[in-house]
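job 3f2a | input accepted
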Amino acid sequence: MKDSRYFMIQGAVILLFVALSTAVAVQAAELNESPEVTLLREAGGGKLYEVGGQKMLVMEGCAEEMGYQQGLLLSKEIRHIMLEGYMNNSLWNKGYSKEYVQAQSDRMEKFFPDSIREELQGMVKGLKEAGVDELSYEDLRLGITQAEILHFPPDGAPACSNFACWGKWTSDGRLLHGRNLDWSIKGGAQDDHIIMVWRPSGGIPFMMVGWAGGVGSVTGMNSQGITLGEMTLPSPDVTFDGMPLFLQMRLCLEQCGTLEEAVQFFQKCPRTTGWNFIIGDSKIPDGRALETDAKYCTAFAPMDPKETDATAHRGMVDAVRRTNHPAGLEQLLRLAAAFGREYGIEISSQEEIEAAKPLLMANDSWQRYDWISREIERQPGKMDVKEAVEILGSGPVQASNTLHSCVFDPQNKAIWVANAANNPPVPAWKFPYVLFDLSPWFD
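job 3f2a | predicted structure (443 res):
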């Protein structure tokens, strides 16, 4: 796990930079292109499927109806993740008090739209009908607010990697978006992994790779070809008085049909802590990297001049990528001003940032950023799903705590998803990536 000062601490270990020039094994891509699809159960407009060993829930209707369908169809999984599995392991067993968690959730709930409250209330109804009476609205609310809470002690922030590329890099010019969620695989969230598809009345159909009991998540795509993945970003400007990450991402997918709308959504929404985002739009195709926190939201386009060698970065044609640090000079200087003295680092100017580049480049996050860049550039015109999957399972991007790994193929209304195992924990990229054809629900 990486806390908010991780890149500065690791900067002292300069020898790690040698790893960039060494050969690293590549995980052979395993793609399940024809998964068996089985309808497990249904209720109203909701249907629960098993697809290649992973569960997929399709919900349809108004907010309360979709919540009810999830509560009824996933009652066992929701009860498990909330009372016995991930929430118990990651919050209560790690020393978070229920009073503290409730207080921070109360602060974030002030930013919930009414539709989200209605969906959670519908989930409570569905659970009760299924015979699960132990879970309250406040319990289910943790499915939205826990990401922010777990980014602060006694736990710490996880790491992730994202890239989107198109045009000159892909085999036919279409946009592909690869994403690793490097969270904890020891908490058991993978036991209640769900591919979730929402078809809101009068709204944009969208999907998210998530977990039972969630009305949002950290990985998703909508029927308009918008793809979205996040990564933790160290920041001195953080708060619980904002819209939690899971809702930022869910509402963006539910409301935004263009890249411009998606960028504007994040610029305008009340944000919490530091997050990087990669947003893709297959219709153009094009993408953006966002560096955000409670106060700032900076967008980077392909070949953006803000992505400069002065901070050991570089813009790319037809590609955007991010890991867990800021590429922008302004963000780096803010971090140095906030945390530098604590670690004996005095940086207050661009010249001092440039002098510190060897320290920055020794950090795991910089190494992942560079690896992704070079792997994309290594094979112009050849990138397809198989090659994207291989990037996610290679070099420093190949993490031991990958909870889920996926490749979005929005032009084909498809996503390829690998999920981690438990007992013993095994990272997601070691498993076959299952094809989810979303066209029946996105058309």
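job 3f2a | Residues 1-23 have pLDDT under 50 and may be disordered.
job 3f2a | closed
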